[in-house]
Design brief:
The chain has 15 helices and four strands. With 450 residues, the chain is mainly α. The chain has a single domain, classed as Up-down Bundle (Growth Hormone, Chain: A). The strands form two sheets. A two-stranded antiparallel ribbon has the order 1-2. Helix 4 runs antiparallel to helix 13, helix 5 packs antiparallel against helix 10 and helix 8 packs antiparallel against helix 14. It is globular. 57% of the residues are buried. It holds the Pfam family MFS_3. One of its GO terms (molecular function) is transmembrane transporter activity. InterPro entries: MFS_dom, MFS_trans_sf, TM_effector.
């Protein structure tokens, strides 16, 4: 994607001679029948089935894990430490996962990662069901699971292109987000019931079984149908090459900058939901599961809406990040659990419009031979930021109170979106038009693109 038009996908090939191979950048499908067009591909259907089951189980494990830590320690900060330990390896080692994704088979890397995740789930299940689980056990397993994520996430991101090819990539990314949020809606609801009925240990059992199912689906995929790209040759400076590529592509750079603010301040919602359920609304495990489910409802709507997005623009990424921050600010001021929950549905919608838009823009703006490294840097910011945010938000929720912390969580991304918008406007990439002659709501404040 050229620097002159950093935020619009075009129908031409972009080449970077000597550095990366060309990639076709295509417009999104517009017809309703194309909303789930990627499902026509057999391997992608297998991947999606595994992804759906895995996401439900993963959300169940996350909810159970965070709630168990809160009950064992009585500390929201301890929940934040758990989140931080799980995400810290990506912050420290994430780019190396991208190098692996560019050099080796993505499917093989995913099989290894999911197998390791299954073993960790079994360990947690045994400790929890036997009554031997302690907080330090959770910390250790969370950290090791974070090491698994270093390999899993870049490989998973790039593998989607091998499954569907460049034509259906945007559609597949949006469907993946929809599946993730549908699982995020179902998983916490089941986990909330399970926590009160039989305890959280069985959530780890479910996740172990889901990992086995994922490995099975990966194994039965037809290798000849994959859209493979030539592996990047081993060379010095591979990480620096990825970083330079990211910095000189404005669409990637500004999407990553916005992701950093959102990740650090606004993506530690499980920590915040635990604090609100336990300390503000006194709704217990059931309320905690309900709050996470309602956030996922809004996120699912946002993910589905992203499949219908006609154009892929940097401005929509920045605006949706700002809207997400604004929604969190409003939620912090809500007086009851029901009004709070209603606003959090809106927050979930805005967050997924941002996350899917940023993910799509970064992937489509990146040539295939360097995509693993670029995506690993983006994921490092997105997930690693949550490592810092988990500690920050957990500490703030405990010492400043949940409402003030959520107000801070929303204000920073909203302000960052405003600043980035001004920077882009000054560079001529976004332009603000005010029309007071013929007043209509759509004309008072219109952000257009050159």
């Amino acid at each position: 994607m050229s620097a002159a038009a950093p935020d619009a996908a075009t129908d031409r090939e972009v080449t970077d001679p000597g550095v990366t191979a060309p990639i076709s950048i295509v417009r999104a499908n517009k017809g309703f029948k194309d909303t789930f067009a990627a499902f026509a591909i057999r391997n992608y259907r297998y991947f999606t089935m595994a992804h759906f089951v895995a996401v439900i189980a993963l959300w169940m494990q996350r909810i159970a894990q965070d709630w168990i830590v809160l009950q064992l320690s009585g500390s929201v900060t301890a929940v934040g430490i758990t989140v931080a330990l799980q995400f810290a390896p990506t912050l420290l080692l994430g780019p190396w996962g991208g190098v692996l994704a560019d050099r080796f088979s993505k499917r093989a890397l995913l099989v290894i990662a999911q197998s390791a995740a299954g073993v960790l789930a079994v360990v947690m299940a045994v400790l929890s069901l036997s009554g031997a689980l302690q907080v330090w056990h959770v910390y250790l397993v969370a950290f090791v699971l974070g090491l698994v994520t270093v390999v899993d996430q870049p490989a998973r991101q790039v593998f989607v292109n091998e499954l569907v090819g460049p034509v259906q990539l945007r559609n597949a990314i949006s469907i993946n987000s929809s599946i993730f949020q549908l699982g995020g809606m179902i998983g916490p609801a089941i986990a909330g019931i399970m926590l009160t009925a039989v305890g959280g240990g069985w959530a780890f059992v479910v996740n172990a079984v889901a990992c086995v199912f994922t490995v099975t689906m990966l194994a039965v995929m037809k290798g000849s149908d994959l859209v493979r790209s030539a592996p990047a040759p081993r060379s010095k400076g591979m990480l620096a090459e990825g970083a330079r590529y990211l910095v000189r592509k404005p669409a990637i750079l500004y999407s990553t900058i916005m992701a950093s603010f959102v990740a650090v301040f606004a993506l530690s919602l499980p920590v915040m939901m635990a604090a609100f359920a336990d300390h503000v609304f006194n709704s217990g495990a059931g309320g905690y599961g309900l709050l996470n489910t309602l956030v996922a409802v809004g996120a699912l709507i946002g993910a589905l809406a992203s499949t219908r997005r006609r154009e892929l623009r940097l401005r929509s990424v920045v605006i949706s990040a700002g809207a997400y921050g604004a929604a969190l600010v409003v939620a912090a001021l809500m007086p009851s659990m029901w009004s709070f929950s209603a606003v959090m549905v809106i927050a979930g919608f805005a967050s997924l419009m941002f996350l899917t838009g940023a993910n799509q823009l970064v992937q489509i703006s990146t040539n295939m031979q360097i995509r693993g490294r670029v995506m690993s840097l983006y994921v490092m910011v997105l997930i690693g930021g949550q490592a810092l945010g988990g500690l920050l938000i957990g500490w703030a929720a405990e010492h400043l109170g949940p409402q003030l912390t959520l107000l801070l969580s929303g204000s920073v991304p909203a302000l960052a979106a405003l600043v980035v918008g001004i920077i882009l406007a000054r560079r001529g990439e976004l332009m603000l038009k005010v029309n007071l002659r013929f007043w209509r709501p759509a004309d008072v404040l219109r952000i257009v693109q050159r």
